[in-house]
Design brief:
This protein is an alpha+beta fold. The chain contains 6 helices and 5 strands. Strands 1, 2, 3, 4 and 5 form a 5-stranded antiparallel beta sheet that branches.
Length: about 180
């Protein structure tokens, strides 16, 4: 009992002293967390978010205008939610006369465009093909309509310059399944 008392009393005093201090500026705390190394940021593991149900995900996607359907996997009895994405094929364009410096600048702008698409949640995956064929790469757009995917793909500086052209097709995939 004496050991318990020796642990509890100092612990309570420490807690009381922290609670009596003036609260920090919330903005400053956020800035400090951003600047802190990732391993120094403590996460509250007691608050675990429950995954959304397929029904909830289905409703959210439908409300945003996405095309979806679901089915029950015969082996696992899990509900599999399928979503329509749009796959943009980036094909060799008719204007490839840019000099090396211009081509390098266009490539930087192309990558910046794709980064913006990811950051805004419009694109989920993108990459070049490993051969030197006419189809140079793909981007999978996570948007509700073909028109939107086509518009976003055509904002790419490589497409605007004519170095690449876009061909977009609807593509179905199971929602939430990772690549292996």
């Amino acid at each position: 009992m004496e050991t318990l008392k020796n642990i509890l009393i100092p612990t309570l005093l420490i807690l009381i002293s922290f609670n009596c201090k003036e609260p920090k500026n919330e903005t400053l705390e956020i800035e400090e967390a951003i600047e802190a190394p990732i391993d120094s940021v403590v996460t509250d593991v007691t608050e675990v978010k429950k995954p959304k149900s397929p029904l909830k995900i289905k409703q959210e996607l439908t409300d945003k205008g996405f095309q979806i359907f679901d089915y029950v996997d015969s082996k696992t009895q899990d509900t599999i939610l399928m979503q329509q994405y749009f796959i943009a094929f980036l094909k060799r364009g008719p204007i490839r006369s840019q000099n090396e410096e211009e081509a390098k600048k266009l490539q930087e702008e192309h990558l910046a465009h794709l980064t913006r698409m990811y950051e805004k949640g419009y694109a989920d995956i993108s990459g070049p093909f490993g051969d030197d064929g006419d189809i140079r790469g793909i981007t999978i757009y996570n948007v509700p309509t073909l028109k939107m995917a086509d518009s976003l793909a055509n904002l790419d500086p490589m497409v605007k310059s004519g170095r690449l052209v876009i061909e977009v097709h609807p593509w179905w995939a199971a929602k939430g399944f990772p690549l292996r």
